[in-house]
Amino acid sequence: MQVKEDTKGTPVARELALNILYEVMEKGAYANICLENKLRNSQLSPNDKNLVTEIVNGSVRMIKHLDWVLNLFLRKPIDKQNPWLRNILRMSAYQVLFMDRIPNYAVVNDAVDLCRQKCSKALAAVCNGVLRNLIRERGKYVYPPADSIEYLAIYYSQPDWLVKKWVDEYGREAAQAMLYYLNQRVQLTLRHNSLKADRTTVLQELAAEGIQAVASPIIPWSIRVESMDKSLEGLKSFQKGQFYVQNEAAMLAGVIVAPQPGERVLDLCCGVGGKTTHFAEMMDNQGHIEAVDLHEHKIKLLKTNCHRLGVTIVEGVQKDILQIKPVPNRNRVFLDAPCSGLGVLNRRSDSRWRKEPAEIAKLNELQKNLLSVAGQAVLPGGVLVYSTCTVNRLENEAVVNDFLKYNPDYKLEAIDRQVDFLPLDQTDRQAARLGFLTLLPGKYGMDGMFYARMRRG
């Protein structure tokens, strides 16, 4: 999605971006939370708010690349520099290297001014020299050998361990494609609410409200927003419940679970109800869905979303799933398990830097325990679907295979027909016939996601 962006922005916007970046990089603040808090209280124009968001998220996301380039022009490593100077250099380098719409002179002038305010005249001179050299030598930087893990990790700004893992598991070409996708601007997509309007009607309503959007060429319920300069929440079509903001990979849960009108459905780890409400739409708002999550604030948002969308069959329950004593009385059970989120690293700029292999490995045991509880709630002949938004076989296929080992009354069930509208390649289509669907980030223009469908005998 393209947002309307000023070609220059204002010094005030860049100073706010610096202050937020300092909080994130020097004090450990979460980028999305810090941005939301600071922008909510600012008097900046919508264009300047967009600029601040892009500078902060881009600088955090690409920090490994930025630091490597900046170190080419610094006498001592960037991590040894004055904290304000290094973050001024980072955000300025990001604007020069990745935001072509901003003139280099504006970037340098504002950086020098900020350095005078935050540091000293001497460091302002250092800042000026480094940025001018970086601009002058652009296109001449010598990166590590292109066939190395180091090159991919630096160029695409990702942890070395993750790059190596993906190259080992999926091959270099697929890994590089994933790394590229995870640095792209997130595509804003909407799922039309079939209880209120069809997709054509929603597109017409959006157009009347000045939103440029098109029907997704892949997902039948999806609308892709191409340009907007206003808040979605302020739109009449939003207030009337005609759509729900959801990424396309998550929209597949509906057809893979395939709930029918009148059925009893259990949605575990439901979050704020994106997939839950889609199930209700597919059931024509007939039957019953118990949606369970550990966090009370998510259940409150779930209920708000259901009300806006006109969904009345969902019962939101705040509960620790591992404390549930399930009874096999549900036609379909869906578990959207807590995971490492490696398939959606593009959605939180700092998430890639907060992941550790040891912590991810611990998730495997939790996922197994949750799936065991989920499996006990399914009626004989019923369907169980396990899902994550990660790309990690230990959290995906390994969890499902372990469950099947100890639950012989379950069998994997083909899902290729449910997703026949997807342009799957031969390998992915064959896996779907077996009951697995792994969407590598960007492969079909969507985020990374995993689904496995099983039926109880």
Present the secondary structure layout.
Elements: E1 2-3, H1 11-27, H2 31-40, H3 46-61, H4 63-71, H5 83-98, H6 104-118, H7 121-136, H8 149-155, H9 160-170, H10 172-181, E2 189-192, H11 199-208, E3 212-215, E4 222-228, H12 236-239, E5 243-245, H13 248-257, E6 264-268, H14 274-282, E7 288-293, H15 296-309, E8 314-318, E9 330-336, H16 357-376, E10 378-388, H17 397-406, E11 410-412, H18 426-434, E12 436-439, E13 449-456
Parallel strand pairs: 1-4, 6-7, 6-9, 7-8, 9-10
Antiparallel strand pairs: 2-4, 2-5, 3-4, 10-13, 11-13, 12-13
Protein name: 16S rRNA (cytosine(967)-C(5))-methyltransferase
GO biological process, one term: regulation of DNA-templated transcription
InterPro entries: MeTrfase_RsmB-F_NOP2_cat, MeTrfase_RsmB-F_NOP2_dom, NusB-like_sf, NusB_RsmB_TIM44, RCMT, rRNA_ssu_MeTfrase_B, RsmB-like_ferredoxin, SAM-dependent_MTases_sf
Report on the architecture of this protein:
The protein has 457 residues and is α/β, with parallel strands linked by helices. Strands 6, 7, 8, 9, 10, 11, 12 and 13 form an eight-stranded mixed beta sheet that branches. Helix 15 links the parallel strand 7 and strand 8. Helix 1 packs across helix 5, helix 5 runs parallel beside helix 7 and helix 6 packs antiparallel against helix 7. The longest helix has 20 residues. The radius of gyration is 24 Å and the shape is globular. This is 16S rRNA (cytosine(967)-C(5))-methyltransferase.
What features would you highlight for this structure?
8-stranded mixed sheet; transferase; 5-stranded mixed sheet; alpha/beta; disordered N terminus; 4 domains; N-utilizing Substance Protein B Homolog, Chain A; 13 strands; 457 residues; Alpha-Beta Plaits
